Amino acid sequence: MSFLRLRLLPQCPISWDKQIIWDLKVKSSNSLYLLLEIEGIKVAKQQQKAEAKRKATPVIGDLHPLMDALPELSDLMTLRKFPKHHKIQVKKRVPTNFNQMNSAQKSKALVEEIAQFHKTISDPLFKANPLAVISEHLSKRLMQEREGEPL
Questions:
Q1: Of 10, 31, 63, 101, which has the maximum CB count within 10 A?
Q2: Which of 31-35, 48-52, 99-103, 140-144 is predicted least confidently?
Q3: For the chain, how many structural domains are there in total?
Q4: Which InterPro entries does its entry note (predicted)?
Q5: Closest CA to 136 of 123, 148, 115
C-alpha cells in the first residue's frame, strides 16, 4: 500500500506526506532489525563451528571455557600492586652516640673499635708512613660525605 503512495506522491494531499514518511521510517527500522538478526545468526553459527573445531582437537579438547574462567593478566597485575602482609626484616638502628647506647651495644662497639685499631697498627703501609695513610683515609672520607654516601 505504501509503495503505491510513493508513486502517487505528487498527487497526494499534504496530510499523506507524514504517513509516507512514517511508513518509510518503520520499514527502515524493520530492515535494520532484520539485518541485526541475520548478523546475530551468522555470529552464532561461527561460534558453533569454532566450538566444534575445538572439541575435535585431539588430546586437549575444548579449552575455551577454561580460558574464559581464568582472570586476565592485567587483573592479576593490579592485584599484585597491593600485596597483603609481607614481613620485611628491618634492622634496628644502632645509635651512633655513645651515650645513647645500652651496655651491650657499648661493649660491642668497643670490641669492634679495638679490632679495627689492631688491624690498622699491624698494616705494613701504616707502619711505613702513618701520616700519608691517615691523610688518604680522611680525603676519601670527606669525598664520600660530600657525595652523600656512608662509609
A1: 101
A2: 31-35
A3: 2
A4: Slx9-like (IPR028160)
A5: 123
94 assigned to some structural domain: no
Q: Are 5 and 20 in contact (CB under 8 A)?
A: yes
3-class DSSP state of 10: helix
Please check whether residues 76 and 111 belong to one and the same domain: no
CB 5 within 8 A of CB 19: yes
How sure is the predictor about 4, in pLDDT bands with cuts at 50, 70 and 90?
very low
Give the residue among 84, 104, 82 at the shortest CA–CA distance from 92. Answer: 104
pLDDT digit string, tens, across residues 84-117: 556 666 667 767 787 888 888 889 989 999 999 9
Rounded Cα distance, 95 and 107, in Å: 13
Report, in this order, helix, strand and coil percent for the chain, each rounded to 5: 75, 0, 25
| Whether residue 104 sits in one domain with residue 62 | no
pTM: 0.34
List the grid coordinates of 130. 702513618
For residues 16 and 76, state if they share a domain: yes
